[in-house]
Amino acid sequence: MAELHPFFVHFPIAILIVAALFDFYGAIKNNQQHPRTAYTLQLMAGISAIFAAISGNLAETMLVAQEPLHQGVMASFQKHTSIGNAAVWIIILVAVGRTFAVLEKKEWALKGWVFPVISILLAGLILVTGLLGGALSRNILEYFRSI
């Protein structure tokens, strides 16, 4: 499953950005279908982010056990892993909170800017996590080229 990490991570990144766009557009146009679509996309992203985190943690464990890495690579690992795991928990919390708001038909959640703002922040967080993952991949590649 560790080898599938690059496959798993791209789906929640893309889907959270699309969800943020749906939320933002729905708030601007005061259209209820767009936030519903964003909600569904966030639920899907939450499930797929769990697989991304598990596969990433497995990949890290395999690589670190296999090869003693230099401090720069380990620092990149720690930063990416910490922010990635935090992002997964935040995605899950947002999905649970939004589910509660939808089921309870909370007016503040169904209309307005609460979830569009949260969606945009969440998309930003997942983008940062992805950029850190890309930097980590480059650091690992440079490390193995140097030995």
Derived from helix and strand composition plus strand pairing, the structural class reads: mainly alpha
| Radius of gyration from the alpha-carbon trace, in angstroms | 17 Å
Ends distance: 27 Å
- Average pLDDT confidence is 89
Helicity range: over 70%
- Sheet having the most strands: none
Strand content: under 5%
- The helix tally amounts to 5
User: What overall form do the CA principal axes indicate?
Assistant: elongated
Point out poorly predicted stretches: none
Number of strands: 0
Order of helices and strands: HHHHH
Tally of discrete structural domains: 1
Chart the SSEs and their pairings:
Blueprint: H1 5-29, H2 33-66, H3 71-103, H4 107-110, H5 114-146
Helix pairs in contact: 1-2, 1-5, 2-3, 3-5
Supply the key terms:
147 residues, mainly alpha, 5 helices
Structural description of this entry:
It is a single chain. The model has no long low-confidence stretch (mean pLDDT 89). The two termini are 27 Å apart. The chain has 147 residues and is mostly helical. It has five helices and no strands. Helix 1 packs antiparallel against helix 5 and helix 2 packs antiparallel against helix 3. It has one domain. 88% of the residues lie in helices and 0% in strands.
